[in-house]
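[09:14] KT: can someone run the structure on this one? pasting the chain below
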Amino acid sequence: MKKICMYLLNGMADHEHGYLLAALSSQKKPKYEFCTVALTKETIVTMGGLKVTPDYTLNEINKDDIIALILVGADIQLWLNKEQETILNLADELLKRNILVAGICGATLGLASKGLLNERIHTSNIEFLLTNFVKNYNGIKNYKNDIMAIYDKKLVTASSVGALLWTKYILENLEIFSKTAIENWYEYYKSGISKYYIEFMEVIKEDKNF
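[09:31] RB: done, structure tokens below
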């Protein structure tokens, strides 16, 4: 089974992957295995103090099994540290192979440091961070202000407040649910109107493919 791999690093933001994990848990018949990966098997500590033990090290993962790579935000300096070179090289390789990569918040700076935003439409927390902290960032012409998340050429980027829309783009790209189900799911969490949640549950209950 292909794998959706979420990279873990110390100090990662707790709130940015919550919508994605909740949505994936709603599947009746998961299309892909969700797993966590890290540089080592050592327990990582999130920004909020949650302790998480990775399922795999990066060396244990067959790259051909990855259907999506999820990069969660953290302090920008953490994503610009040399120790992130391995995961960013993997992101580069996967994008060249047309495999989905999704980076949010501070992870966008890591992606920018590899030049992966220069030729893709993208967003981040604020353009100042990219232009002032990433030396080889040359993608300002493709930067979108005041957009919480955006998808282009197999890359989803988002600001720290864009987790919901970011997740929507991931679900759509991987066809985790039908388009109707995803729209209902998104509208419920965006608006809080209960009819959308009811419609989402009805759609996935009736759809034998999900």
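[09:33] KT: thanks! The chain has eight helices and nine strands.
[09:34] RB: yep, looked fine to me
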